[in-house]
Fold:
Amino acid sequence: MSSFVGATPAVRLSVRNHLLGLSYPTVGSALGVVDTGYDGFLAVPAEIFSALGLDKLPSASRTVLAADGRPLKLASSFASVSLLGVGQSLDGPVESGPGMGEILVGTRLLRRFNIKLDYCSGVFRIERCR
Amino acid sequence: MTNITFSLPAKTIRRLRRRAADTGRKKGVISELVDEAIASYLDALESSAEGQTFTALKGERPVAEGKSLQELASALRARGVDPRSVRIVSSEPLEPVGHMGLRVHAS
Structure:
């Protein structure tokens, strides 16, 4: 299920850590902001990273550059992301770092989808690539 | 929606009913859970076809591999390996330095 939050495109999603059998959220779905400026797969706040048990798994880290050029160090582990209404679960790296306040859906995940943003009629549609 | 009939082991049905009860809702919950489970399984098969693989390493030694995280988790369980004791790597690693926030450079 996709929609605009204000003028920002967002998708309803859930994340599953198959290795520890943990999901976020445990019931229903959470809102992820579509962020084409983020080249990763999925970024989440620290409390969600922890709720998924990803902080308990040996993780990698990498540096990402913020829009102002500041380097940020992010922890990275793996999980499955299901986008509601799209009918597809995708496996990929989930990252987290200090100061992150919302879920970001990056271009590494979005590259599997056909996205239509129509601000004229207020329509945001996301579909699997054909 | 289409109605179909199939058989499941009693143990699976008990787990399914327990899970449905946990949601606190009544109508259509079991159908939703079955749909979600089957869709998730089919997704895992389809994402396998996309070629990404996940490997669990102890030190530098591979101990299990899967074409999806679900498959890797099953392989680790089958070998009795604690996922907390292994490092997972993907055949499609992230760029070592990434971007968070759009940066457009004038050329």
